[in-house]
Amino acid sequence: MRVATWNVNSIRTRVARVVDWAVREDVDVLAMQEIKCKPEQFPHAEFEAAGYEVVLHGFNQWNGVAIASRLPIQDVETEFPGMPGFLKGHEGPDLPKEARAIGATVEGVRLWSLYVPNGRSLDDPHYVYKLDWLGALRADTERWLAENPGLPLALMGDWNVAPLDSDVGDPSLVPGLSTHISPPERDAFFAFEEAGLTDVVRPLVPDGYTYWDYKQLRFPRNEGLRIDFILGSRAFADRVEAASIHRNERKGDAPSDHVPVLVELADAAAEEDDADRPMIFG
């Protein structure tokens, strides 16, 4: 099964190139972020013509997440249990939830498409919201895996965190002054390792950015960020056979400012056969 994530930055603007890429790369499941539309505005017809079913969560022209699959989709959720809400200038437990998460099960694999809050600036309430959001997701992840240690689980999407210094090529980000690279954000990202997840792409693709700002010739200068990730449980990671970052999708007419990240999973039955096969020692 080939699984990918892509912040498409408006699916109505880029539907042709998104569908074309998914078909060309033989993608079975595509998690999308920043679809920027309501359900009735989503271009279902183009995906259906290519053989994809789509589930999505979107309220307006901001945020929005979706999962497109050529395989049956089950158990759809449009928020994780602890997900906090946000409304500028307001505090409390009952703030409106944004369209930033959608989960579904495909072929026994639990997949989440996630658009982590940006944070805006270190002194903005949105930064606190971002850390709370990541903390709640981490707590739920830990609980899911405690209840089902063998669950093939992947959290995929735009994390809006560049966890390593090598993930930062954009000179506009300044340590101590910028979001995405602050120690609390990086700590929140690495906390998912303690919860039982691992970055399944980096071991196979150690270098490469996934985002370049449209301004200041960031892409031609390769001044990008690595902020799009697929974090998988042990049962998911053990099935990853290949991974790739598709830099060329930042080229051409009207590209998204992000590019797709893709992993290929071994068939579950093949994994079970390998586990049952007697070991042979030379």
How would the blueprint of this fold be written?
Blueprint: E1 2-7, H1 11-24, E2 29-33, H2 44-49, E3 53-57, E4 65-69, E5 73-77, E6 101-106, E7 109-115, H3 125-147, E8 153-158, H4 183-194, E9 198-199, E10 228-232, H5 234-237, E11 240-245, E12 261-265, H6 268-276
Provide a descriptive summary of the structure in words:
The chain has a 6-stranded mixed β-sheet with strand order 3-4-2-1-12-11. A 6-stranded mixed β-sheet has the order 5-6-7-8-10-9. About 25% of the residues lie in helices and about 20% in strands. The protein has a single domain (about 1-275), classed as 4-Layer Sandwich (Deoxyribonuclease I, Chain A), CATH 3.60.10. It has helices spanning about 10-25, 45-50, 125-145, 185-195, 235, 270-275; strands at about 1-5, 30-35, 55, 65-70, 75, 100-105, 110-115, 155-160, 200, 230, 240-245, 260-265. Mean pLDDT is about 95; it is low at about 275-280. The chain has 6 helices and 12 strands. The chain is α+β, with helices and mostly antiparallel strands. Strand 3 and strand 4 form a beta hairpin.
Main attributes of the structure:
282 residues; alpha+beta; Deoxyribonuclease I, Chain A; 6-stranded mixed β-sheet; 6 helices; 24% helix; 22% strand; disordered C terminus
The average pLDDT value, as a whole number, equals: 95
Task: Enumerate how many helices there are, as a single number.
Answer: 6
Main sheet: which strands, in order across? 3-4-2-1-12-11
Strand content: 15-25%
End-to-end Cα distance, whole Å, is 33 Å
Order of helices and strands: EHEHEEEEEHEHEEHEEH
Q: In which range does the helix fraction lie?
A: 10-25%
Task: Give the CATH superfamily.
Answer: Endonuclease/exonuclease/phosphatase
Give the CA-based shape: globular
